[in-house]
Specification:
With 188 residues, the protein is mainly alpha-helical. It has helices spanning 2-27, 33-40, 44-50, 54-74, 83-100, 102-105, 117-132, 142-157, 165-180. It folds into two domains: 1-51, Orthogonal Bundle (Arc Repressor Mutant, subunit A), CATH 1.10.10; 60-180, Orthogonal Bundle (Tetracycline Repressor, domain 2), CATH 1.10.357.10. Residues 11-69 form the HTH tetR-type domain.
Length: 188
């Protein structure tokens, strides 16, 4: 029982460090490990004990954000949720993650860091379902549509001033359906 309590405490400490690092590095990408430790409410040695270097910390942040990104997609269950509902829910969920973990998710300038094979497979499932149900025009290049969709999400997440994920999701979905959707199709 005591070992489990130590593990839970250790996991909370790591989570606090990751969240503090996201906040601090978003404000100041050149921030030191000491500044991150202070923001997390732990000692610098605690941060170094968990993460051997700044690069190791940033890599852990990216892995954490990537898992959050995957979970945001998977939680919608795009294989069984009505496709238009899934499109909106996935978009809003992913925007919430991107707005919260922007520094970590943008460490890969090519965007490939979070687009793991599992994430791409989930995206492809719901884009195929959108096509099968007639929400997308026949003959649309689904890979291109997915790439445009991901680029729209990325751009929407850059607008920190209007960081309402639901409003941004509506804009992204309207844009996707306006460009690729069946004429006259609306989500409202």
């Amino acid at each position: 029982m005591e070992k489990r309590a130590l593990r839970a405490d250790s996991e909370r400490t790591v989570q606090a460090i990751l969240e503090a690092a996201e906040r601090v590095l978003s404000d100041n990408p050149a921030a030191t490990m000491e500044q991150i430790a202070e923001a997390a409410g732990v000692s610098r040695t605690t941060v170094h004990r968990r993460f051997a270097s700044r690069d190791a910390l940033v890599n852990a942040m990216t892995l954490w954000a990537t898992q959050q990104f995957h979970d945001a997609l998977a939680s919608v269950r795009p294989d069984v949720t009505p496709p238009l509902v899934a499109l909106y829910q996935v978009t809003a969920n992913v925007l919430r993650v991107k707005l919260r973990w922007g520094f970590a998710m943008n460490t890969h300038s090519d965007g490939e860091g979070v687009l793991t094979p599992d994430v791409l497979a989930l995206c492809d499932v719901f884009f195929r379902r959108l096509e099968e149900t007639g929400a997308l025009r026949p003959g649309i290049d689904l890979v291109w549509a997915r790439r445009v969709y991901c680029a729209l999400i990325h751009e929407a997440a850059q607008d920190q001033d209007s960081a309402d994920p639901d409003a941004l999701a509506t804009q992204v979905v309207d844009t996707v359906l306006g460009g690729f959707g069946k004429p006259g199709l609306t989500v409202g």
